[in-house]
Amino acid sequence: MDKVINCFSKKPDALARLVCFPWAGGGSIHYARWGRVFNGSIEVYSVRLPGRESRAKEDFFQNMQQIVDEVIEALLPALKEKPFAFFGHSFGAMTSFAVADTLKRLHGLEPVHLFLSGASAPYSEMRIGAPKRSALTDEEFLQWLSSIGGTPPELLANPEVLKLFLPALKADLHVVENYRCDKPTQPLLSCPVTCFDGNQDVPHDLQAWKEMSSGDFTVRILDGDHFYLKDSVNEQVLMDFVTKHLETSEMDYL
């Protein structure tokens, strides 16, 4: 499991686990450090995909099913131990949903809460009609990347760093742009769902996520662009919100 999951702060006595899925091109470190900030009742597992960090020499995944299969194989024993929740931003919102859907269908397990950020539901018309970015030239791609915010200008101006960064980002976008999910005719899950977004990001169809679960549905809009969650104030808001709802879920679960 250590190859796939990064856990900075192991908490064997934690009452619940929060499994975090990276944004496109992202690694595991951003979320793994959350484990040192959350109180002792929450243990954080951060997903590490191939082609980055300690898995840099591995080939990128080509489709969503590969991600789902690997994450479930790595996590299934741990997910049977205690309550768990998923958090995913952008590409991570899609992967966390895909994993949650498969877990429920094949293993009868589901999160006690699904926290989704910065993404339209996979079956929404807004998402289906969105421009595909993975096939852009590097120059066009960098212009788009700069426009959505959240990427340090010094990184975008450094060719050597970009050589390492762009392939993972484009590979993940290729996966999500080719991911297909039919609109549910009935809820797939029963857990509560919370959607977050930045008020300066491009519009996302957050309401469409409501259709995939019969649980409570909440939307929270925070100040910022696509990477609003990198702001320290927003990050604390997110972590406080997650803590409150997971601790409530733990009481319901017990």
Topology:
Elements (H helix, E strand, L loop, with lengths): L4 E2 L9 E6 L7 H4 L9 E6 L16 H16 L4 E6 L1 H17 L5 E5 L7 H4 L9 H11 L4 H4 L2 H19 L15 E6 L18 E6 L9 H22 L1
Parallel strand pairs: 2-3, 2-4, 4-5, 5-6, 6-7
Antiparallel strand pairs: 1-3
Helix pairs in contact: 2-3
Structure description:
The protein has helices at 29-32, 64-79, 91-107, 125-128, 138-148, 153-156, 159-177, 232-253; strands spanning 5-6, 16-21, 42-47, 84-89, 113-117, 193-198, 217-222. It is α/β, with parallel strands linked by helices. Strands 1-3-2-4-5-6-7 form a seven-stranded mixed beta sheet, sandwiched between helices. The chain contains eight helices and seven strands.
**How far is the first residue's CA from the last residue's CA?**
26 Å
Q: Based on CA inertia axes, which overall geometry fits?
A: globular
Order of helices and strands: EEHEHEHEHHHHEEH
Strand order of the largest sheet: 1-3-2-4-5-6-7
Count of helix runs = 8
Ranges where pLDDT stays below 50 over 5 or more residues in a row are none
Mean pLDDT: 91
Biggest sheet descriptor: 7 strands, mixed
Q: Could you estimate the helical fraction of the residues in percent? A: 25-40%
What percent of residues are in strands? Answer: 5-15%
- The total strand number stands at 7
Specify the structural class: alpha/beta
How big is the Rg? 17 Å
Descriptive tags:
254 residues, alpha/beta
Task: Give a nutshell description of this structure.
With 254 residues, this protein is an alpha/beta fold. It contains eight helices and seven strands. Helix 2 crosses helix 3.
